[in-house]
Protein 1
Amino acid sequence: MLAVATLAIALFAIVAGLSLYGFSHGSRIYEGVHVAGVDVGGMTKAQARTALQQPLAQSNTTPLTLRADGETYTIVPADSGLRFNLDKTVDEAYDIGRSESAWKRVFVWSNALLHGREIAPVYDVVNAVLTSVLTNLAAKAVVAHEDAYVSM
């Protein structure tokens, strides 16, 4: 009987602790969540926006290097129809541990807390612009085929 009571108390303590953890992060991102290496765990959405603004905004102007057949090409994301979306990125970080069932949330929280949870930045893509840029690069990178032959 004592073992059953001890087990019940332990189970109650675990459930109560997890519930308190969940409620304590009602307006904050859960601990262990990172965006592109920036730790945003424990932050409000506003704090996360501030923390991510400069490092990730730079990704709009940092050239990307593309390689094809030994040649190197660079494109600037902002000029190529790619733009970092700060609000969507912060929303994705905030949604970790909130969109799952109550049972699964516990595992998501624990995993993020113990092992970390990396979120990729969200980018908006203007397809027409990106297609145009990549088509221009393809014209430089794609070479006309040559007929093959075997000589003996």
Protein 2
Amino acid sequence: MGRFNENVIAKIEQDLQVKLPDSYKRILLKYPFPPESDAAYYDFYGDSEVILEDNKYYRDNGFSGHPWLPHHFIIGNDGTGDIFFIDLTHDDPKVFKAHQNSVPEKSFVTREEAESLYQFIQQIQERTEEFEEEEPTDLEENKKPKKRENSWE
């Protein structure tokens, strides 16, 4: 499957038996990150197969020893085992992070990461830009300033 279009989004909804919020669908249709970027691989999944796999896995196996609620929809992860998700019972969902605790064993906590999906995307973009500014740039093409447009709004 891979990248996003109306048919791919409909397949995700059908396979997982969910109704995705319009804000999430709009962002997927104008996906804001390069396909090979860390942001697309971790923070905000850029591949429909990964979205399906992760959501099916946690629905079947739970998270940190607890059942995964069917209205919690995984949109990414932080690369350390914690996952970002939205609550499908809301039209304009907040983004939450489920964090695994080591003590007590098999427990987890959730915390709000962003007031909206748009704010979450902006946070990722800001982190990405900060990281790019910290890296040494020897290549001429990397010396050009990069401008990002929020085409997904």
Protein 3
Amino acid sequence: MILSRRFVMLSSFSSVDWISTWLKANQMVVQPTPNMAMENMNRPLILVTGVTGYIGGRLVPRLLEMGYRVRCMVRDPVRLQGRPWQRSVEVVAGDMLQPDSLAPAMQGVSAAYYLVHSLAGGSDFHQRDLTAARHFSAAARAAGIERIIFLGG
């Protein structure tokens, strides 16, 4: 479901393959070139949140394969240790419930994947999810991020 040109919402049943297909269909795929290492700074920077989860952890290597620069925002960067792609991404610490921690992750980003949910957080998880999404949206707007891809639960 496309909410606007800026916000795209995916159902919880969406797969990484569907996301890859959507990127290609919307001409958001970067074609690898022989000088990619030198050209890397000109590649779009994509922010991925929720990278310790099932979809986020599988999306990051797909984005890297497609030639994107990837920045991962996590509450605890130690949780990314051992991931085969860890050295190929930027890692930024941030917490959706602490709005001041979001700005550094948003700088220079053209698109952001919001794959964060607090289902394990007790009976008021839905309120925390709403608050976190509002913080993220406000920070993205302030940073001038062009597109947010939101995975709904």
